[in-house]
Amino acid sequence: MMSRSYTNLLDLAEGNFAALGPVGGGGRRRQGSFGLKRMSRVMTVPGTLSELDGEDESERAATNSVASDVPSSVGSDRMIVVSNQLPVVARRRPDGRGWSFSWDDDSLLLQLRDGIPDEMEVLFVGSLRADVPVAEQDEVSQALLDRFRCAPVFLPDHINDRFYHGFCKRQLWPLFHYMLPFSSSASDATTSSSPGTGRFDRSAWEAYVLANKFFFEKVVEVINPEDDYVWVHDYHLMALPTFLRRRFNRLRIGFFLHSPFPSSEIYRTLPVREEILKALLNCDLIGFHTFDYARHFLSCCSRMLGIEYQSKRGYIGLDYFGRTVGIKIMPVGVHMGQLQSGLRLPDREWRLAELQQQFEGKTVLLGVDDMDIFKGINLKLLAFENMLRTHPKWQGRAVLVQIANPARGKGKDLEAIQAEIQESCRRINGDFGQSGYSPVVFIDREVSTVEKIAYYTIAECVVVTAVRDGMNLTPYEYIVCRQGAPGSESMSEVSGPKKSMLVVSEFIGCSPSLSGAIRVNPWNIEATAEGMNEAISMPEQEKQLRHEKHYRYVSSHDVAYWSKSFVQDLERACKDHFRRTCWGIGLGFGFRVVALDPYFTKLNIDSIVNAYEISESRAILLDYDGTLVPQTSINKAPSAEVLSIINTLCSDRRNTVFLVSGRDKDTLGKWFASCPKLGIAAEHGYFLRWSREEEWQTCTQALDFGWMEMAKPVMNLYTEATDGSSIETKESALVWHHQDADPGFGSSQAKEMLDHLESVLANEPVSVKSGQFIVEVKPQGVSKGLVAERILASIKERGKQANFVLCIGDDRSDEDMFENIADIMKRNIVAPRTPLFACTVGQKPSKAKFYLDDTFEVVTMLSALADVTDPELETDSAYELSASISSLDIGDEQSESTGRTIGG
């Protein structure tokens, strides 16, 4: 039976669910076949992508290597811009025969071309705002490709309705604007034409995934994966990066979100929250308008996926399976050329003169908003009413002109807001209106660009009171219009020094970039009213200074600057793509690419067994947690199988077997009491024992642990303040654990504790180190790397250098071992040409050269070594080594290679 799990992306993408019904075969066949015979840039690849979850490893490996390693023979780079809609207007010809097309000059996608290098071709992929019959789709596609460099995506109506109206507009858009569907009759702020309710609708989500697959198929038709960049836009296509990354592991992908990204407390209510986050993390660069939006996204990654971000030289990045996913924070700007051209239009002159005559002697406050529930139009009216009441001097003088662009959808909440706005207008005009004076002029119709520019020009102040808005370019447009076109001084132009004032909501994306604006909380009616009064009462010189500051920013940070900056950062983020080995792993939305060192390979059991059999002196160093037992195991004690394997390995006189762990010596001694010849290095090597019969030794000189009395009060302070945290006291170290605390708060407290401990212990011979959900304080010169070196040096001291070294571990502390093991050959600690098997557990970035997938494979490999071990060659090699270890003093003169070292 076919799986119905909505986490199975491939299953959904192929339409294997009854909710969507038939795909509409004719339309889809045309979609899938068109363009391949005409587009020279298409790259054909051997084989096809297996779309079954049950594909074997060899098939997946072949798929993952597609179009990744061979440089392309095609020329320069190209930018493929993918969005829900193309920047093209399509109209049926008057005679009904064929279509006419023109650029949509107001489209941001068209305007961003100004910032893309001239030598980089731009190709658009998206849908048309027109219903094109299936029989005409091929002809329309070819015309758009030839004349506009656009590749249209045609979605079947039943899928488009559930994709756009059902999921994008009824679930994602309200949620991203902080609206939660508390009831099954939750409002639909945009349309009532789609099925389902405001609550999560599984069929709508399935349609969203399938629609993203349609866009993916169109991109595949036109892409050359080694030369092209792909720039995906907005929340409609958040699943697309996973499709692209699965097909082309090294494809250079950028994404920009044009809406707000909600806080984690809001976003976490989305049932498919992890699927969308993982899909976005398949990009190389993710862009947001403001730091708040980026911070919310990073918080979601931390809380839901356990991924922390790092800032390096001003760039924020997430380490995601060896790939660094960049975070770009850059608000979009206006198109200066288009606005300045509008300021020179002939129609502007008479419209401006007409408005100046209409509002002569009046102070005009202007609002320009879409008619939807988030724009706060009624809050603005209430604040204006409050200003007139509390500041009577403006009665008869101040006018609020509110332009409300016609609603693009329907819904009960929208109808209620419209009724409320109309009632407020009637009340204000009734209470404060006079003969020839209406305090509120409400324009509820389409307003042409030139008319809007004329209103901007005569307005003394623009007021934006949206309760949530991704960016909102109205303030930017107003500033440019108040400045006027360069070199244009028409008779009707506003005379005198240029000035403008802004009252803007703190909840809109442009607010942080307008430092001279009066920022308000639109829900606070009284404060907003005072902000309006302050804006129009401010001294003229102050208005001029604020305007000049704003204009410098807006004119220099236009849409071309924004797109140029994004493209440059995308190029920087992708510069090493073709130098690294990439592995695609995971199914459905769990798919991700692991970027590894080119020489990082899976440990071949036959190879290590062969090397083991012919060697005469072997060193086997094993981590414990996450290596011999899974990290998730409730019972952490070793299994009987592990104990048996270790005893077998220890029975061979040629073997020196050591357990190198961060656990305390008493626990390890108890667990491995049945392994008399096993060496144990506990607490990262501070304590060392060569066999069960030997006494524990310390690997450093006698230390004063007085620092513990200094560190404990600090850690207790944070433990009391952080619910779910705890302190582990070892003989040589203190460890603060916060894995059971709130992820965000625990991480924040760990960073604060690290700085606090560094300050308190500045003159103590200790290292303060942060790890995965821990902060650890331990003596200097204690690390797994140094104890590994001591063991190998002891073997050499005995007169028989090791000629086989196996070192296995899974976490950060084991990286010290891998690093030291890689260097011992140069220092003649082991025999020449010794095979060094440094192996990490899990396919992840590491200083080791080999990996095994999990603890099961580790035990399997060790079992294979045990099978070829000769127990009859039994001797007391560990006892011989214990005599030589006391004469070595390697660790005292070196500090730990990772973490932070404090004092001397």
UniProtKB/TrEMBL annotation:
<keyword id="KW-0808">Transferase</keyword>
<dbReference type="InterPro" id="IPR023214">
    <property type="entry name" value="HAD_sf"/>
</dbReference>
<dbReference type="GO" id="GO:0003825">
    <property type="term" value="F:alpha,alpha-trehalose-phosphate synthase (UDP-forming) activity"/>
</dbReference>
<dbReference type="Pfam" id="PF00982">
    <property type="entry name" value="Glyco_transf_20"/>
</dbReference>
<keyword id="KW-0597">Phosphoprotein</keyword>
<keyword id="KW-0328">Glycosyltransferase</keyword>
<dbReference type="InterPro" id="IPR001830">
    <property type="entry name" value="Glyco_trans_20"/>
</dbReference>
<dbReference type="InterPro" id="IPR003337">
    <property type="entry name" value="Trehalose_PPase"/>
</dbReference>
<dbReference type="InterPro" id="IPR006379">
    <property type="entry name" value="HAD-SF_hydro_IIB"/>
</dbReference>
<feature type="compositionally biased region" description="Polar residues">
    <location>
        <begin position="61"/>
        <end position="70"/>
    </location>
</feature>
<comment type="similarity">
    <text>In the N-terminal section; belongs to the glycosyltransferase 20 family.</text>
</comment>
<dbReference type="GO" id="GO:0005991">
    <property type="term" value="P:trehalose metabolic process"/>
</dbReference>
<comment type="similarity">
    <text>In the C-terminal section; belongs to the trehalose phosphatase family.</text>
</comment>
<dbReference type="InterPro" id="IPR036412">
    <property type="entry name" value="HAD-like_sf"/>
</dbReference>
<dbReference type="Pfam" id="PF02358">
    <property type="entry name" value="Trehalose_PPase"/>
</dbReference>
<protein>
    <recommendedName>
        <fullName>alpha,alpha-trehalose-phosphate synthase (UDP-forming)</fullName>
        <ecNumber>2.4.1.15</ecNumber>
    </recommendedName>
</protein>
<feature type="region of interest" description="Disordered">
    <location>
        <begin position="47"/>
        <end position="70"/>
    </location>
</feature>
